[in-house]
Design a protein that fits this description.
By secondary structure, the chain is of the alpha/beta class. It has 4 domains: 6-24 and 167-315, Molybdenum Cofactor Biosythetic Enzyme, Chain A, CATH 3.40.980; 27-48 and 132-166, Molybdopterin biosynthesis moea protein, domain 2 (Alpha-Beta Complex), CATH 3.90.105.10; 54-128, Beta Complex (Molybdopterin biosynthesis moeA protein, domain 3); 324-391, MoeA, C-terminal, domain IV (Beta-clip). Helices cover 18% and strands 30% of the residues. It has 6 helices and 29 strands. Strands 1, 22, 25, 26, 27, 28 and 29 form a 7-stranded mixed sheet that branches. Strand 10 and strand 11 (116-119) form a beta hairpin. The two termini are 39 Å apart. It catalyses: adenylyl-molybdopterin + molybdate = Mo-molybdopterin + AMP + H(+). Residues 125-139 have a biased composition (Basic and acidic residues). Pathway: Cofactor biosynthesis; molybdopterin biosynthesis. Residues 114-142 are annotated as: Disordered.
Length: 400
């Protein structure tokens, strides 16, 4: 390689900043269309929550000393009438509490004799005051928050019909390599493409929108003309094009010349990380990006989590991905002056253990992994050490 690799942590920051500068403009969308997108503005409460005093129990709203004369019923959704001394209103959970109510008597702790209610109310209020959860104008969630069903529910509860969001970046995947087969068994010098089938799923989990028909496309013929043509076609529709293979400078590695032909500038070109250091992110005129992932499967996923995850975060206005920490249950070697992203699995004792079958070209270890333990340059990962973890967003329910 002709260029010195950039430090791994610096590369993460650089691609996030580039993505943030090219983030899509905000747009207001109906709540039902926002799941999986990102808040472009803080979510601010439009009202007190609750907006009015609401009963926490089924029972009777009372005023003054008892016994009390039953004067009617208040159900959820109704406006509460005035209440006066010696009066009781039957009240349902969630119903509006009349102004001036002194107590709410639980139905299970009351006695109703004809039109007369008696019992001993509990000393603490049995209702939610306006603003118990939030006051009008409170910031509930900051800009950059991923929109989940819970966020949608919160927005609806405080009065939103639409929210300002940034859409997921549209992604395409180009698979390079004449040596790849897309079906059947490997053999006769050819191997199965193991990245084309899996990368769209990873991209969805990272907050991108893989475009049908473009994720994946390939294998692309190993010529410069084919590479340039495929990239041009993909960039017409996608905000981010991920490629696999061709990130070095071998006789059939055409990615760098193709990027030069398209007028790209490198945000990151090679990263001091093992495995997977010949990775890159380039920005095209107009604010679109190409992420070059190595052809070896595990190296490609290292590049995905190192560069594509923070790039997508920047493009959607999210923060730099947060790194958890884990305690190592066994030693993990360092890689000299390179950051080592080592596959680990968190076992029942809560410790993270390195996995076998974790060479660059292997997927067996990756399929059982919880993520990559980060061993910084010049260090070793001793058993008992607490180290950062780049988590893999792959488990839904029980682990395999």
């Amino acid at each position: 390689m002709n260029e010195a690799p950039i430090a791994w942590d610096e590369a993460v920051v650089a691609v996030h900043a580039a993505g943030r500068a090219a983030a899509a403009p905000a747009q207001a969308l109906p709540l039902a269309e926002c799941d999986g997108l990102t808040l472009a503005e803080p979510l601010v409460s439009l009202t007190d929550l609750p907006a009015f005093a609401t009963s926490s129990v089924d029972g009777y709203a009372l005023r003054g000393p008892g016994p009390w004369r039953l004067a009617g019923r208040i159900l959820a959704g109704q406006t509460a009438p005035p209440i006066s001394d010696g009066v009781a209103f039957e009240i349902a959970t969630g119903a509006m509490v009349p102004a001036g109510t002194g107590h709410v008597l639980r139905v299970e702790e009351s006695t109703l004799d004809g039109e007369v209610v008696s019992g001993t109310p509990r000393p603490l209020p049995e209702w939610r005051e306006p603003g118990d959860e939030a006051h009008k104008g409170d910031e509930l969630l900051p800009a950059g928050t991923p929109v989940t069903p819970a966020v949608i529910g919160m927005a609806a509860a405080c009065g939103y019909d639409t929210v300002s969001v940034r859409r997921a970046p549209r992604t395409a995947l180009l698979v390079f390599g004449d040596e790849l087969r897309t079906a059947g068994l490997p053999g006769d010098g050819q191997v199965r493409d193991a990245l084309g089938p899996q990368l769209p799923g990873w991209l969805r989990r990272l907050g991108a929108d893989p475009l049908p028909g473009l994720s994946p496309r390939g294998p692309i013929e190993d010529t410069l003309e084919a590479h340039v043509s495929a990239l041009k076609d993909a960039l017409e529709q996608a905000d981010l094009v991920c490629t696999t293979g061709g990130t070095m400078h071998g006789p059939v590695d055409h990615l760098h010349p193709a990027l030069a032909a398209l007028g790209a500038r490198y945000v990151v070109n090679t990263v001091a990380v093992r495995p997977g250091f010949p990775m890159l992110v380039a920005e095209l005129p107009g604010g679109k990006f190409v992420a070059g992932l190595p052809g070896n499967p595990q190296s490609a996923i290292v590049a995905l989590m190192s560069l594509v995850e923070p790039l997508i975060a920047g493009l959607t206005g999210r923060a730099v991905p947060r790194r958890d920490t884990v305690t190592l249950g066994a030693p993990v070697p360092g890689r000299g002056g390179y950051t080592h992203l080592a596959l680990v699995r968190i076992e029942d004792d809560g410790l993270a253990y390195p996995l076998a079958h974790s060479a660059s070209a292997m997927l067996r270890g990756l399929a059982r992994s919880d993520g990559f333990a980060v061993i910084v340059p010049g260090a070793q990962g001793d058993a008992g050490a607490v180290v950062p973890l780049v988590p893999l967003p792959i488990f839904f329910g029980a682990r395999p």
